[in-house]
Every structure is written in structure tokens, then in C-alpha cells.
Amino acid sequence: MAEITLSIIKADVGGFVGHSDVHPALRDKCSDCLDKAKKDGLLIDFCRAEVGDDIALIMTHKKGIENEEIHRFAWDTFTKMTDVAKEYGQYGAGQDLLVDAFSGNLKGMGPGFAEMTIEERPSEPIIIFLADKTEPGAWNFPLYKMFADPFNTIGLVIDPSMHDGFRYEVLDLIGERKIIFSMPEEMYDMLVFIGSPSRYVISHIFRKNSDEPVAVTSTQRLFLMAGRYVGKDDPVMAVRSQSGLPAVGEVLEPFSFPHAVAGWMRGSHHGPLMPVGTEDDTPTRFDGPPRVVALGFQLKEGNLIGPRDMFADKSYDNARQMALDAADYLRRHGPFEPHRLPLDEMEYTTMPSVMKKLKDRFKPV
Ligand code: F6R
Ligand code: MG
Ligand code: MG
Prior knowledge:
Layout lengths: L2 E9 L12 H16 L5 E7 L2 E8 L6 H20 L24 E8 L4 E9 L7 H9 L6 H4 L7 E7 L4 E6 L4 H8 L5 E8 L5 E5 L4 H5 L9 E5 L7 H5 L7 E4 H4 L1 E4 L1 E2 L15 E10 L2 E7 L7 H15 L11 H4 L4 H8 L7
Parallel strand pairs: 13-14
Antiparallel strand pairs: 1-3, 1-4, 2-3, 5-10, 5-14, 6-7, 6-8, 8-9, 9-10, 11-12, 14-15
The site of fructose -6-phosphate has 9 residues, from helix 8.
């Protein structure tokens, strides 16, 4: 089997109602575009997916990553969906399309993407995660657990083919640089950085002996592109599993603890990342709490066999209950940290305009 590329490209082009869900008319437009792209031979296969107010185009093809034709197709699809969103008066229609016209690829244009080119294995189980009301660094904690923590992934201990560990590529979103850490030898060094997920974000994971990705995340941050607050970045990621990689259950296990992430209400609050089945992917309470869905696929010659709704499983009920309890606890802080984000992160929101108004009233002490 020759190489195939998996591209997940997502955007929020209008919410129903507010920022909680996607209107069926947008879904229909999206499916029409994807159907046509498959018929035209651009795509091998696709799955339209969503979480909250974000729609993701999950696509397989032969054109490689950051390909102009694929990215243009996604841009055109989001543009057509925006027209529908406007027609139906959807909230924030076209909000993630930050530029007037497409050029080259989607970098810096608003939509998020996670892509990898792989040699498909005889059986290729892949889990695709989509999150709403959070940011790309939200994946740091679960990715650390999956590929570096033996208390999560027993395969690191007892499967000889995993025993050497993995390499993590970490982006510095502010410094615009990247670094590779080798696990487990450099675990403490890496944790210094990935423990600050608003700035340092795991972008890829590789085996020790190959540059073919085994996990990939979307890493764009809208405020860095737009220079102002335009909503959180609602990230996606794809993780390959089994046969020398974490088992499906090891890939899902980190989400049994709903860790705290940034992005709830106005992109300005911490909240628990609640794992949900696709029926429950509609953040409503205080525009949240943040949530994540997991879609399981078996790839077969590039065909996306699936999805299976992995977090619909009852065994995540306790995680959901813990998330709801944590949400209650945090909400009672109201406008106080640590529920509200620290001031330096609020600088990218509408907070600076409030500060500006008061700046002349501060007297030296
Ligand atoms: C959107 C989000 C929401 C909005 C909030 C206010 O990603 O997190 O919580 O920030 O609904 O939206 P505006 O300012 O458009 O009224
Ligand atoms: Mg929105
Ligand atoms: Mg969203």
C-alpha cells in the first residue's frame, strides 16, 4: 500500500444557538461539498464530524500534507457553509475565516488543521479527537500520558516494541520555534515546557526509529494570527494505535480524568475537559464546560471505516461526573482566578480595552 495522507481541517463558521452547536443546513452543505470532492477524485474518503460549534472535514487522499488543492477545497467548503450560516442568521457566521481570499495553504488563515502522511499498516486503527471551548495545548496532558506514562500505558513496560519510548515534537507558539524531546530520557526537561500548554504545544509524536508521525495535533492559535481575541482554537488531533503503539484503550485512558484546560466562556476561563459521546457534544452551561469527542476509525486502503463514537461508552460516566463536580467548584470562583485565566492570558481578550479606560486613574505609590 502506497502512502496516504489523513487531513483533518476544522473551522467554526457559525454557531446554533450562540456557540453551542451547528445548524443542520450547514451540515448538509458540508456533506454535499465532501461528496462532490470524493466523486471528483480529490479525496479517497471522508467523514464529516463536529464538536460544539466546530465542523471538521476528516479526509484521506494522496496529495500529501499542506497541499494547496486540499486546503483550497476546505477553504471553499467553509466559505460555502458561511453563506448558508448567513442565510440562517447563525451566530458568528464565518468567524474563523480571517482573510478575504485563499492563497497557498491554510497557515495563518484561521481554520485549524492536523495532517499526517503514513504508510498504512495491514490494520490501521486511528482515533480522531475533536475538542470545543479549549486550545491546542489541551492535548499536552493526554499525549504525555499516552506515549510516556507507564501508569497510563502499560505497553511501555511490557511490549518490547514500545520499550524504547517515543519522540515528541514541541512547538513554542510565542517564540515560533520547535524542539524534539526523547522519552523517557528527557521526560523532566519536556515537562518543564508542556506543563505550560498556553505557550508550548505538542505537535507530533514519532517512534524512535522513524520520522513517520504516530500522532499529530492542530496547533494554530487564532489570537496570534488575528492580533486580537477571535474565539478559542478548538483543536483536533489524530492518534494511531495498536501493534507497537498504545492500544486503543491506552489512547483513550487519559480522558478518564477530566483535566483542567483553558477556553471556557469567552476563551477566558479554566474548566474540566469533559469526554462525551457525539450526542452530548453541545457546550451549553456557561458556554461549556469544554468537551472532547473521540471518533474511532479503521483505515483500509485510505477508506475511513467508521466512525465509532468511543466516549459514548459508559465507562466514561465517572469522568463526566467528575467534570460536572469540577465545573461546579470552579464556577463558584466567578471572576476570580484560577477559574478566570491569569492576566497575561487575558491580554489577548477584550480585557485590554477595560484596562485602557482606567489607566490614567492609577497613581504612583
Ligand atoms: C466562543 C466562546 C463564547 C463567547 C461568548 C461571548 O468560542 O467561547 O463563550 O466568547 O459567547 O461571545 P460574544 O462576545 O460574541 O457575545
Ligand atoms: Mg463559535
Ligand atoms: Mg468552537
